[in-house]
Amino acid sequence: MKQIDVVKSVVDTLKRVLPKDKELISLHEPTFQGNEWNYVKECIDTGWVSSVGKYVNQFEQMLVEYTGVKHAIAVVNGTAALHICLKLVGVQPNDEVLIPALTFIATANAVSYCGAIPHFVDSSNDTLGIDPFKLDYYLDEICERRKDGSYNKITGRRIKAMVPMHTFGHPVDLDALFDVCIRYQIEMVEDTAESLGSYYKGKHTGNWGKASALSFNGNKVVTTGGGGAILTNDEQLGKFAKHLTTTAKKPHRWTFEHDHVGYNYRMPNINAALGCAQIEKLPTYVQQKRALADIYKEAFRDMKGIQVIAEPVNAKSNYWLNAILLDEDRASLRDDILERTNEQGIMTRPVWRLLHNFPMFADSPKMDVSVAESLEARIINIPSSPFLGASYG
Ligand SMILES: *Cc1c(COP(=O)(O)O)cnc(C)c1O
Asked: By alpha-carbon position, which residue is closest to atom 7 of ligand 1?
């Protein structure tokens, strides 16, 4: 097929699958068809809109029940959740933290907020997330083992933590990464911002990291307007997370006693109210998103040189964002496809720019990231709102 015909057939395939009566089909838009209005209205009617109120506790409880992680602490956004997770596992200024080069900028920003340095690692073609085997070889080469952990021989800095991210909701190979963490004495924090509703070997993501971070931004699987949560199975860490995110104030009826530099990261009740209504609908959304993914897979099945990215083996993905992946020899078509689809009112986007290419992170250490570079050149995200799968679900 000629290159121009490939571009046309991608546009035609998307048009065939997507609704015909809409002028613009966005990449991901929220759906509010449950109790959102009732719960939010109650906050306003009763005056409990801010950082204290029953919905915050209820929302946290719902997250615990849904994910099976024992403790959840609701906060203002996913980046704040990541920041606190890193502090909880003991990341200190001048430590290095292993993160994928292929992730949203927030992962690296949270590392920087701790005064630590992101150390970029490569992705696997199977999961789009950190490649445990390539990383193992790399660490073996660059690490010096000391009593208190692994040190980067080149920079002299301690490698304190690793933050795997479940790209577009597809779980990484958590067991293999966990094994690497144990052997090199590295703490794991999971960036589960995209993977609420995604399971690895039958267990919800967020259960492997000592602490994990969720996001409820407007474009995520469920939204609280803006919001996030810290998940942990460790009771002490859970208590400390709540303490740190509520200005580290010691409970007392009237005096102001603070024992740490705390953060005002607590999620307001009005946002949690929205969240409770959204979580009630989460199973439906995940089902609709998985149905949409099946439709896309079927629609692109016979197209040469292009595949729909599918969940890895051992995993059940929420398919937060669907994506097509161009073969290497079709990579030059990416921008044409982006141009034509957006022109037709079908919102598509390239994946994030690899993080070491931003000036803030240009001097950060990194391993060979050739797989991430290749993926960056070939991924196109396509419309993925839950309602698009509703008629197929
Ligand atoms: C959305 C997202 C975040 C941050 O969430 P915010 O709530 O927007 O701060 C972090 N990491 C990844 C991978 C994300 O997609």
From this structure: 78
- Does one domain contain both 294 and 264? no
Interacting residues of 339 by C-beta distance below 8 A, sequence separation 6+: none
CB atoms within 10 A of CB 92: 12
Note whether 18 and 49 are same-domain residues: no
Question: Mean pLDDT score of the chain, rounded to an integer?
Answer: 96
85 lines ligand 1 (CB under 6 A): no
238 in the same domain as 98: yes
34-68: pLDDT as tens digits:
999 999 999 999 999 888 889 999 999 999 999 99
Domain interval for residue 373? 3-31+282-389
User: What does the pLDDT look like over 74-132, one tens digit per residue?
Assistant: 999 999 999 999 999 999 999 999 999 999 999 999 999 999 999 999 999 999 999 99
Question: Cα(217) to centroid of ligand 1, in Å?
Answer: 7
Return the amino acid letter for 189. Answer: V
Residues 288 and 215 in one domain: no
Helices (H), 206-319: 235-245, 269-300
CA 231 to chain CA mean position, Å? 13
Domain match, 201 and 331 both: no
**Ligand 1 center to residue 260 CA distance, Å?**
26
Ligand 1 contacts CB of residue 107 (under 6 A) = yes
What is the mean pLDDT of the segment spanning 11-23? Answer: 94
Q: Distance between CA 288 and CA 281 in Å, rounded?
A: 11
Which of 249, 280, 311 lies at the terminal end of a domain, its last residue? 280
Residues 100/129, Cβ–Cβ less than 8 Å: yes
Domain co-membership, 216 together with 234 = yes
C-alpha of residue 113 to centroid of ligand 1, in Å: 15
Q: Which one of 280, 315, 340 terminates a domain?
A: 280
Total domains present in the chain:
2
Q: Is the CB of 194 under 6 A from ligand 1?
A: yes
Determine whether the shortest distance from the Cβ of 168 to ligand 1 is under 6 A. no
State which ligand 1 atom lies nearest to the alpha carbon of 226: 7
